[in-house]
């Protein structure tokens, strides 16, 4: 075999630009809300790669002069904004309509800023009075801030006020049959606009605030205030003070209203006295307007954005050809039509005008002129050349270009018609003008007007192209920003003139910059800025030539992390402490004193600091310093030694030991490895309890078993490997064939890229032998990582074509890999699949489909891996493949599919492979016009409903599985008891084993089997069975209790009546000896009935919650307790908002804190918090008994004075959204001590006054410090009688009992004590330790919620006798929460705390690390702990086990300190509340409604409300079941129609309120149909 080497020069190609404008100018595009209708231009059609900002237009305002505080944004089209589902919007998407599409557009183009434009021509009439009212503009700004909180993908607001002082609608126009109100004015409009923008900036300090300014050249200096004209109006602030940028209308200068032909958007003045826009001193043109804004108003050029129209104006009845033969028809009379019944003369018919006689616009859009589908066609231009089409020319149409005004027009002298418009030529000239004036960019009205179809976005593309071109007669400056020799990334570079005014700004991701189109001969200053850096400015004088290689130098400080490592109090030496940031790792080792110090941590970088020493763990496990900005002290505590087990064995080839084999054990978070010695032996030492996958590897070899999984490693293991037979050891080899015949002497070329100075570009030829085989020696590819090309060139192989034609840009394989070539393409898919990770075929049944377009969509991953969509086209055999470079750097695939609109409206299946991981090895994904058979899996064992085995015996799990013939089975996984077990194929079944633990017996299980196809599609099958213990070694099983009635534990009664309570109690291995119920202060025996039922008739005596504790005792004295709560509610409502079923409660600050900024209650509307506590009520001068509400007075001012009504309105705004607002008494600075009855009465009456005045829904007891010392350390009787001897204790209990009794059961009473005062009583009881337990015990009926603060406190001993502090994180949460529900003995006092129902208990955690001194755990850890408490599902690292009686499905939710910290930067954009809301939503979805199962089968089902009853009928099929859900997804009614008729009438108390319900109807055939039904109570 001969090798021929040919060295070539390497051409360097530029990197592909990111999907965003590369020219550095702003391009603002307006999108009209109504574009979804006749225009059929939905938001996904917007090309965001050519825009920097998108203004969604329009929103209006709601304004009542009598109540300016209620001023809000107003949606003008709810269907367009939030309801339509065009383009495949999911029906259950939380936001639909255009806002769904805006969110997706932002995800596709992360650089794109999306703003809401407020006002417009017809909806800005109230902006004048709003801007004139301090209250109204503040309310509007606050509503804008709240709007952004609700829709965080919105980046700001744009004010389109048409116009201040004068202009705008006059009251005579009609749209959709309704007159448009006239514009309102105030003499101070210009000043009030500044005040409105100021209010917006204050409410949204980090969001974009912009305006669209007008086009009246002669009036803009009065309408808009800038730096040059503010003094004459007595102002010190102007529009540019608060706006990020200012767009101005570059259109509507001339129009039909002049009854004379003229231009819509002349760049320069015509100078013609016949021009309606002419003025002797000042004419109307873009140049004149720009001069006004720059020179008279004084707006900075770098904030000014010029308007660009994608439309023009049509004129009919042109009187004559005019006086200029070169520009015929220009500036001559063109009267509008006088139409009977219309107030105004009517314009010619425009592009989208409807049939209404009085509503003609005369507006002609470029999409219309190039022949795209419109309402009224004016197709006169070729879409490619934008010249007049032959057909239009023959009809008399001629294009003219006015070289004075720099705009074109169309004129037909026969038809007497004239059209002013814009094309690519005029658009280029306008953009060049923008650049020559150093303006910030261009603004487009409007995106849907641009060309469509085969030549889309012509004008927008021209704008993008023109911004990137060079202006003649200018110079450029380019260079880099460096820290030493290293480029500084993500740096902002400003170009300034000699007066230090910023001319241009570049945000450079890589550190390089270029400024173009600069005036020659000027002095320039270059400055750079980036957090934590200091840069030296560069001054360039008299720049007359292009400047390159300019370097701006910067420096960056470094910091130190230091501390000690201790084992208790003993220093620990030899511990390696590492600080990692990206690829940078800095380390230090602790000395004999346990001291370490890591130096050189670069400012601004994120560092993760950990401690490590073989055999030990350390707390904290890791600490992250984000954007480090100072020296840090971090101390570590050494934990107990880690127990390791070994996995060891040998590797042999037949009987010969194999050395040098790497055996790797992979686990979540890393791996361990060992290499076999000369005897083939290896040994791995692995920490116990881990889940490991063990494999053996050696270059060019494979081994059996391929992999072995050890779950929860708890013993030494022996694992031996056998080496498989191997082929070629070369990494690249294969065969060349003609069909099935080997081809000898074929030349295969391998091309390798330039890699470094010793590994240059090279081409190597391998020649096949007589068997058609070729191979490249490994020395050829040594030192290279990528293969540029592997192919057979036709000119070297007798002009024969071999397939694949070129295997390009793939990694040099780590192991021997075969690449085959053939003259036939039948093997192409397999060949491509051998290299590329994603490939497949597209077929119509069995016939291949050529030229089909397969789209892959990849998500934004980092700054160099943005969102992108790539198309692959199938060859003649239907094969497609994506080069590996397409997915390089990505981990996830958003979508792999064939779009019907790109494939002749043909649907292919699967219709979308969505959200799957980029495969690690080549995978085939096939598509077909025939529906792909979904995967199927069926559990075959265990087959019995009850399985009885002895302890230690394994249960064999079996399932059969199948997938479509075009796919393969990737895996079959069983899930049981929270454990995933991967099955192996044995014959025709997939088999796995599960060995139950002792605690797993005598329970019911649902076994789930999941099959995953190679396409990523999955299917599940479940089987329920009961696991019983058999034999003599079985442990005693606890009795089981099931709640029967009442099924709804909220009972509405007009008078107190008997409530029958029924449970079922069984004992699987014995008998139940008795069942008791504890309710309303007494314990009673329940009456035994048939079928293991036990009953008790309870008669309530008050409208309140009654905690119920039912205990079943078996024949071996084992006890099980079932806790529940029965709520007795009066029919009707009161003023208090009830608690939701699952709670996310947050405290709201009433003070300023820069780290956790103040939030108005109105800003919390729509957040994930569904209960909010106002913090705090304190006592006057800390007297302990006179309540006073703390208020943030500066936030609620009227004329500089605190206005409590504003605070009341603010609280009301949150309550109006259905969120209870509770006032909290105490806190860190609150002090409450009630020594006598007089003080108690003052306290109660004071709280009543606050509650009534501010309309709070309840009170929260948040006593801390001295407030928790009730001087009751000698208490030995926890009952109400017992506490009577302790006045401080009794007065607190009495105070809150009186409040609850006074306001009734709807009044909410909650408490948030610290652990010392609750769980601390388990170990000892003193004046403080456990001091709150008597209060909980005696208020257990009145309390609605208890949230013990698991932060800012020490740990406590739990029920298992172990100590749980904050270092134990999720285990502390589970252990200390379990205590509250289970109850416990109080120290050695002989007293017992009975515990509370889980439905009254919240876990209480800080929102982020800075919110508390200790106790923070990540949301993921907190959710894991809550999920364990609610379901029993274990979590990684769990050491605490719930006591008998758990899990607690009714555990109520989360309390956090605080709403403000959650919304702060520390809270990472409300990470905590969003995580728990998502968790509760997932649990509700799992228990209520499976949306994907709903499909509309027919139109014969009807659901509606009739007299507060829900009527459901089906004309064709009998109704099997009706389920009713509220808008939160909670199941309200689940009715099985046992009568099997076609009509069902349902009654439920929830139907008595006006709300929206989701009704799901299942017919007898299993078909489902869903309805949204509103009960209007009429």
UniProtKB/TrEMBL annotation:
Classify the source by domain of life.
Bacteria
Pfam families on file? CarboxypepD_reg, Glyco_hydro_18, NOMO1-like_2nd
UniProt-listed PANTHER family:
CHITINASE, CHITINASE 12-RELATED
Start and end residues of each GH18 domain: 25-470, 1142-1483
* Natural source organism: Flavobacterium johnsoniae
The protein's name is: chitinase
Q: Which CDD domains match?
A: GH18_chitinase (cd06548), GH18_chitinase_D-like (cd02871)
**What does the entry give for GO biological process?**
carbohydrate metabolic process; chitin catabolic process
Q: Which GO terms describe its molecular function?
A: chitin binding; endochitinase activity
């Amino acid at each position: 075999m001969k090798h021929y080497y040919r060295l070539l020069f390497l051409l360097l190609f530029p990197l592909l630009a990111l999907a965003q404008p590369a020219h550095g100018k702003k391009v603002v595009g307006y999108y009209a809300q109504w574009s979804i209708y006749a225009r059929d231009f939905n938001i996904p059609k917007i090309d965001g790669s050519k825009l920097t900002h998108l203004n969604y237009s329009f929103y209006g305002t709601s304004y009542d002069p009598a109540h300016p505080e209620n001023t809000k944004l107003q949606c003008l089209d709810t269907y367009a904004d939030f309801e339509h589902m065009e383009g495949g919007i999911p029906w259950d998407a939380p936001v639909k309509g255009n806002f769904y599409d805006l969110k997706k557009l932002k995800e596709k183009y992360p650089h794109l800023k999306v703003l809401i434009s407020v006002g417009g021509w017809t909806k800005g009439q109230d902006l004048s009075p709003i801007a004139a009212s301090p209250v109204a503009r503040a309310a509007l700004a606050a509503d804008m801030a709240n709007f952004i909180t609700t829709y965080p993908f919105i980046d700001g607001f744009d004010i389109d006020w048409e116009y201040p002082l004068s202009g705008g609608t006059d009251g005579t126009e009609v749209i959709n049959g309704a007159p448009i109100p006239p514009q309102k004015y105030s003499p101070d409009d210009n000043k009030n606009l500044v005040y409105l923008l100021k209010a917006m900036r204050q409410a949204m300090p980090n969001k974009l605030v912009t305006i669209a300014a007008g086009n009246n050249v002669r009036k803009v200096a009065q309408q808009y205030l800038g730096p040059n004209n503010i003094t004459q109006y007595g102002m010190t602030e102007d529009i540019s003070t608060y706006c990020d940028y200012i767009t101005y209308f570059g259109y509507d200068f001339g129009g039909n209203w002049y009854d004379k032909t003229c231009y819509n958007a002349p760049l320069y003045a015509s100078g013609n006295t016949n021009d309606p826009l002419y003025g002797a001193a000042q004419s109307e043109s873009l140049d004149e307007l720009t001069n006004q804004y720059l020179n008279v108003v004084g707006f900075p050029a770098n904030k000014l954005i010029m308007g660009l129209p994608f439309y023009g104006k049509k004129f009919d009845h042109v009187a004559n050809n005019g006086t200029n033969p070169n520009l015929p028809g220009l500036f001559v009379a063109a009267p509008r039509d006088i139409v009977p019944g219309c107030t105004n003369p009517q314009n010619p018919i425009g592009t989208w005008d409807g049939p209404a006689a009085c509503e003609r616009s005369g507006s002609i859009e470029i999409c219309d002129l190039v022949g795209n589908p419109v309402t009224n066609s004016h197709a006169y231009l070729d879409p490619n050349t934008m010249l007049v089409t032959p057909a239009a020319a023959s009809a008399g149409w001629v294009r003219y270009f006015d070289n004075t005004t720099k705009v074109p027009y169309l004129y037909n002298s026969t038809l007497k018609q004239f059209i002013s418009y814009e094309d690519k030529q005029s658009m280029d000239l306008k953009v060049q003008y923008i650049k020559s004036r150093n303006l910030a960019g261009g603004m487009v009205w409007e995106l849907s007007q641009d060309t469509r179809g085969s030549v889309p976005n012509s004008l927008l593309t021209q704008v993008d192209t023109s911004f990137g071109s060079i202006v003649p007669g200018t110079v450029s400056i380019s260079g880099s920003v460096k820290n030493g020799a290293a480029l500084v990334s993500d740096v902002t570079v400003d170009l300034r003139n000699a007066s230090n005014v910023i001319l241009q700004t570049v945000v450079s991701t890589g550190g390089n910059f270029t400024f173009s189109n600069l005036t020659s001969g000027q002095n320039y200053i270059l400055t750079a800025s980036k957090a934590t850096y200091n840069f030296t400015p560069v001054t360039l004088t008299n720049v007359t030539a292009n400047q390159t290689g300019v370097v701006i130098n910067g420096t960056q400080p470094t910091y130190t992390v230091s501390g000690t490592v201790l084992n208790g109090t003993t220093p620990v030496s030899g511990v390696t402490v590492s600080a990692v940031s990206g690829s940078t790792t800095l380390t230090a080792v602790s000395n004999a004193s346990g001291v370490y110090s890591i130096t050189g941590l670069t400012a601004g970088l994120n560092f993760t600091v950990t401690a490590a020493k073989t055999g030990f763990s350390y707390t904290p496990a890791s600490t992250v310093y984000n954007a480090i900005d100072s020296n840090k002290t971090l101390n570590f505590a050494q934990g107990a030694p880690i127990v390791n087990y070994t996995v060891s064995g040998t590797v042999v080839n037949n009987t010969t030991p194999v050395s040098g084999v790497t055996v790797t054990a992979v686990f979540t978070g890393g791996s361990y490895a060992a290499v076999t010695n000369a005897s083939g032996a290896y040994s791995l030492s692995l920490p116990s309890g881990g889940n490991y996958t063990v494999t053996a590897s050696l270059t060019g070899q494979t081994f059996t078993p391929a992999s072995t999984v050890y779950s929860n490693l708890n013993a030494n293991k022996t694992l031996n490997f056998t080496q498989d037979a191997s082929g070629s050891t070369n990494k690249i080899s294969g065969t060349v064939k003609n069909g099935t015949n080997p081809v000898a002497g074929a030349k295969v070329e391998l091309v390798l890229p330039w890699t470094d100075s010793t590994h240059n570009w090279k081409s190597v030829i391998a020649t096949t032998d007589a068997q058609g085989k070729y191979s490249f020696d490994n020395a050829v590819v040594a030192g290279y990582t990528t293969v540029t090309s592997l192919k057979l060139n036709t000119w070297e192989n007798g002009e024969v074509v071999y397939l694949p034609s070129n295997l390009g840009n793939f990694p040099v394989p780590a192991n021997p890999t075969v690449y085959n070539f053939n003259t036939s393409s039948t093997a192409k898919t397999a060949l491509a699949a051998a290299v590329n990770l994603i490939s497949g075929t597209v077929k119509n049944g069995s016939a291949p489909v050529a030229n089909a377009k397969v789209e892959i969509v990849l998500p934004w991953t980092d700054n160099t891996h943005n969102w992108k969509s790539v198309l692959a086209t199938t060859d003649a055999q239907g094969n497609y493949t994506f080069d590996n470079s397409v997915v390089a750097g990505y981990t996830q695939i958003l979508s792999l599919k064939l779009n019907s609109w790109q494939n002749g409206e043909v649907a292919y299946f699967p219709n979308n492979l969505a959200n799957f991981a980029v495969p690690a090895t080549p995978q085939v994904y096939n598509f077909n016009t025939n529906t792909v058979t979904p995967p199927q899996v069926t559990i075959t064992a265990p087959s019995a409903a009850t399985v009885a085995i002895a302890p230690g015996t394994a249960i064999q799990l079996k399932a059969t599985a199948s997938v479509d013939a075009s796919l393969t089975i990737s895996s079959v996984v069983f899930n049981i008891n929270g454990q995933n077990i991967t099955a192996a194929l044995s014959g025709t079944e997939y088999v796995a084993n599960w060995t139950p633990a002792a605690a797993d017996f005598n329970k019911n299980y649902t076994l789930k089997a999941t099959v995953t196809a190679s396409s990523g599609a999955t299917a599940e099958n479940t089987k329920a069975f009961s696991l019983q213990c058999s034999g003599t070694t079985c442990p005693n099983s606890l009795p089981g209790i099931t709640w029967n009635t009442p099924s709804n534990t909220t009972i509405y009664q007009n008078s107190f009546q008997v409530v029958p309570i029924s449970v079922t109690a069984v004992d699987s291995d014995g008998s139940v000896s008795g069942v008791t119920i504890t309710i309303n202060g007494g314990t009673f025996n329940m009456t035994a009935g048939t079928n293991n039922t036990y009953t008790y008739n309870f008669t309530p005596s008050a409208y309140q919650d009654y905690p119920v504790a039912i205990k079943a005792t078996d024949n071996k004295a084992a006890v099980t307790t079932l806790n529940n709560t029965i709520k007795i509610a009066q029919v009707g409502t009161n003023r208090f908002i009830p608690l939701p079923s699952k709670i996310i409660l947050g405290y709201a600050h009433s003070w300023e804190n820069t780290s956790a900024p103040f939030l108005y209650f109105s800003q919390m509307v729509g957040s994930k918090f569904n209960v909010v506590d106002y913090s705090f009520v304190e006592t006057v001068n800390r007297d302990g008994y006179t309540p006073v509400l703390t208020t943030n007075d500066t936030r609620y001012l009227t004329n500089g004075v605190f206005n409590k009504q504003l605070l009341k309105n603010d609280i009301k705004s949150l309550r109006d959204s259905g969120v209870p607002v509770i006032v909290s008494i105490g806190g860190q600075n609150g002090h409450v001590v009630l020594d006598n009855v007089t003080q108690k009465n003052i306290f109660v009456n004071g709280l009543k006054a606050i509650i009534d005045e501010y309309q709070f829904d309840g009170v929260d007891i948040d006593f801390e410090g001295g407030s928790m010392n009730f001087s009751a350390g000698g208490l030995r009787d926890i009952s109400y009688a017992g506490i009577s001897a302790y006045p401080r204790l009794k007065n607190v209990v009495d105070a809150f009992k009186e409040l609850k009794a006074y306001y009734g059961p709807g009044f909410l009473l909650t408490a948030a004590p610290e652990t010392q005062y609750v769980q601390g009583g388990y170990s000892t009881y003193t004046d403080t330790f456990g001091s709150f337990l008597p209060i909980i015990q005696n208020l257990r009926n009145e309390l609605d919620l208890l949230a013990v603060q698991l932060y800012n406190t020490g740990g406590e001993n739990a029920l298992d006798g172990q100590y749980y502090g904050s270092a134990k994180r999720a285990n502390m949460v589970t252990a200390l929460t379990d205590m509250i529900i289970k109850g416990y003995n109080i120290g050695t006092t002989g007293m017992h705390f009975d515990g509370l129902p889980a439905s009254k208990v919240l876990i209480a955690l800080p929102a982020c690390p800075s919110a508390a001194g200790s106790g923070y755990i990540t949301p993921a850890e907190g959710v894991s702990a809550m999920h364990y408490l609610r379901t029993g599902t274990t979590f990684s690292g769990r050491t605490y086990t719930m006591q008998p009686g758990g899990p607690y499905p009714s555990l109520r939710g989360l309390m956090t300190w605080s709403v403000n910290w959650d919304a702060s930067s520390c809270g990472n954009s409300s990470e905590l509340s969003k995580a728990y809301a998502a968790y509760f939503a997932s649990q509700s979805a799992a228990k209520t409604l499976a949306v994907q199962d709903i499909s509309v089968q027919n139109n014969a089902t009807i659901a509606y409300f009739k007299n507060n009853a829900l009527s459901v009928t089906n004309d064709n099929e009998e109704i099997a079941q009706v389920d009713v859900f509220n808008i939160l997804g909670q199941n309200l009614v689940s009715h099985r129609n046992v009568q099997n008729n076609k009509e069902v009438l349902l009654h439920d108390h929830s139907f008595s309120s006006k709300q929206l319900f989701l009704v799901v109807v299942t017919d007898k055939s299993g078909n489902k149909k869903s309805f949204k039904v509103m009960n209007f109570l009429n």
